[in-house]
Known about the structure:
Keywords: Heme, Iron, Metal-binding, Transport. By secondary structure, the protein is mostly helical. Helix content is 65%, strand content 0%. The longest helix has 18 residues, at 78-95. The chain is globular and about 40 Å long.
Amino acid sequence: MWAQVGGTETFERIVRVFYDGVREDPVLAPMYPDADWEGAIWRLRTFLEQYWGGPTTYSEQRGHPRLRMRHAAFHVNPDARDRWLLHMNAALDAVALPPMHDAAFRDYVDRAAQAMVNRLD
């Protein structure tokens, strides 16, 4: 899918639009250090690229994704999950992937976001 939707350029746009929303979100923004937005952008982009068949840079530089473990320190409740999905869905709206790819991407991020919930308050 990575190559079919435009490769790095498309994934960079998805992630930058996503983080434009996250930066302004009163619940999600405090989870990110102000000095590391570019690092967060790189990590998410390379993770998503690898997941969708692109370069394996993420694993080469960071090892196995271990998503639940890497997010365990953060307060991810249903509200945080819903906000994350709101911004990710807005990013996907902005890039307008072909329908089949869009549906697959949204299905994946929905399942991944649900799996990150670690508190129910």
